[in-house]
Design brief:
about 250 residues, alpha/beta, Rossmann fold, four-stranded parallel sheet, globular
């Protein structure tokens, strides 16, 4: 949500890996808050990226028949995990949860907006920001670029960790996937527990021994882990429907 593009090789590779599990994949290029991309040259803070994702979801819904697709889920990684959850929150507020009947699959979501190194931020961070303090992600404070005012206002559309249990009641089925060695690990786990408290059908998976987003960025190093996550995402999107998987060449 601050930088990067759907056109980067790692996102393209992972999208194709997921598609080979028998589902259709649509990548949304949204306006970043810090660095422009070739496809989205305008930079803008919150809520621009969220609005772009929501517009993409509405377009996909309107074109389901032409595209030959069925039920839709939203998914994302890191800042994109934030946007996936926030897109569902926005849909819930607007009475449009029918746009994403299969739910939300959020990978290593960055949803708290701040990592004080000497406190637990009122129970939203846990301890992974301290346990994994040597992670190269630690110096990033993207709340400044993406939505500092929204952070200060406690807006869950910008930073979903602020969502209350009451706000999450009726939220769609969700998977939160975290990486053991990630500074974001515990904010994802704690959000999952909040979903359970709200009565949401939710699952949390932890990819052991991996740093931030490794299971979509380290295909040549841990291909079996990347494939496992791709399969889990496709199975979630299909929601019980049989899938026709294609063979996947492993490095």
């Amino acid at each position: 949500m601050a930088s990067m593009s759907m056109r980067l090789n790692n996102f393209q590779l992972f999208a194709r890996l997921v598609a080979r599990q028998g589902v259709a994949v649509c990548l949304v290029e949204f306006r970043n808050s810090v660095t422009p991309t070739e496809a989205a040259r305008t930079i803008a803070p919150f809520p621009a990226g969220l609005n772009d994702c929501f517009t993409g979801l509405e377009w996909l819904d309107a074109n389901r028949a032409e595209l030959g697709i069925g039920a839709v889920c939203v998914a994302g990684e890191s800042g994109g995990g934030n946007l996936a959850i926030a897109t569902a929150l926005k849909a819930k507020r607007e009475g449009k949860l029918a746009l994403l009947p299969s739910g939300v699959f959020a990978l290593c979501p960055y949803i708290a907006g701040n990592w004080p190194q000497d406190e637990q931020n009122n129970g939203t961070l846990g301890t992974s920001h301290i346990d994994n303090a040597q992670s190269p992600m630690t110096p990033l404070m993207q709340a400044v670029g993406y939505g500092l005012e929204a952070f200060q206002a406690g807006d869950p559309l910008a930073w979903p960790s602020f969502a209350t249990v009451e706000e999450l009641e009726g939220f769609p089925r969700t998977v939160i996937s975290v990486n053991e060695g990630d500074v974001f690990r515990d904010e994802g786990v704690l959000f999952y527990r909040k979903l359970l408290a709200a009565g949401v059908v939710a699952e949390c998976r932890q990819v052991m021994g991996t740093p931030h987003a490794a299971d979509i960025n380290m295909f040549t190093t841990i291909p079996e882990v990347c494939l496992s996550t791709a399969r889990a995402m496709a199975d979630f999107a299909a929601d019980g429907e049989p899938l026709q998987r294609m063979a996947t060449a492993m490095p």
